[in-house]
Amino acid sequence: MTVDARWLRAHRADAGLILIDTRPAKDFHAGHIRGARHFDPFPFHHTDTSERGVAEFGAQLQWIFSALGITGRETVVFYESESGMRAARGQWALEYAGHPKSRMLDGGLKAVAGEKLTTEVEKFAPADFQLNPRAEILATYPRMLEQLGRREVQIFDVRSDAEYFSERVRAKHGGAIPGAVHQDWTAALAADGTVKSPAELRAQFEALALDPANEIVPYCQGGYRAAHAYLALKLAGYPKVRNYLGSWAEWGNRDDLPIEHPRRK
Q1: Residues 141-188: pLDDT tens digits?
Q2: Cα four-point dihedral sign 102, 133, 183, 154
Q3: Most buried residue among 151, 179, 203, 233 by CB atoms closer than 10 A?
């Protein structure tokens, strides 16, 4: 799911490698890795996980990845300044879309510090990307509602403490999904901007009583930080993980879904 700077140096000349810079457009145009294509996932929020909403999300991804010239046969590496939520969202989205070689550059541009960046944008041809959605790595609100309280499913809130404790409310309602375990997503990052080692991540998640035998469903506000948590959980050896795409922007804006209100002790 990730590659490091050493791998990138060894494979830069590979014909089947596509680099995707997920930073804001102004940062990309100020300087990027030579040959990189640009896709900032932030403008593409999707907070409807009804059956229709998921179908629309899939159609959106098919259009985006086709426009990026992705066929499904290459290795696609997403990066940003470090191992952040933008690159993780790109990696997860392409994996969900059915691409077998979706990766994130661990450490991002910090990991390749010293490499000369370019402002030149190379031309590439669009492709006809075919969507083959992996429903097993996406969570929807109907499925979440159906499985609330089941011991074999654990919900993982990776928002900030202020969001979790309703001190910063970013939806119609504050609060959290009932029964959610909480830890800020940034706890998975090392000081150098890379993702912590699998052993460190596993110890962190086990300390939260997240059970590898269970299905783990991370959520945040819009499914970006949750995508990073998805990647971290998978790296730590958790086999059954679903990113709740709609996250709090969906759950917290509905009046028909249960909410609990955690309080600081």
Answers
A1: 999 999 999 999 999 999 999 999 999 999 999 999 999 999 999 999
A2: negative
A3: 233
User: Which of 79, 111, 143 is at the close of a domain?
Assistant: 111
- Residue 120 belongs to some domain of the structure: no
Active site residue: 220, 227, 229, 236, which one?
220
Domain with 200 in it: 135-251
In terms of Cα–Cα distance, which of 57, 109, 121, 34 is closest to 79? 109
Q: Does the active-site annotation cover 18?
A: no
Confidence of residue 114 (pLDDT cuts 50, 70, 90): confident
pLDDT > 90? residue 265: no
In 3-state terms, what secondary structure has residue 145? helix
Where b means 16+ CB within 10 Å and e means fewer, 191-218 reads eebbbbeeeebbebbeeeebeeebbbbb
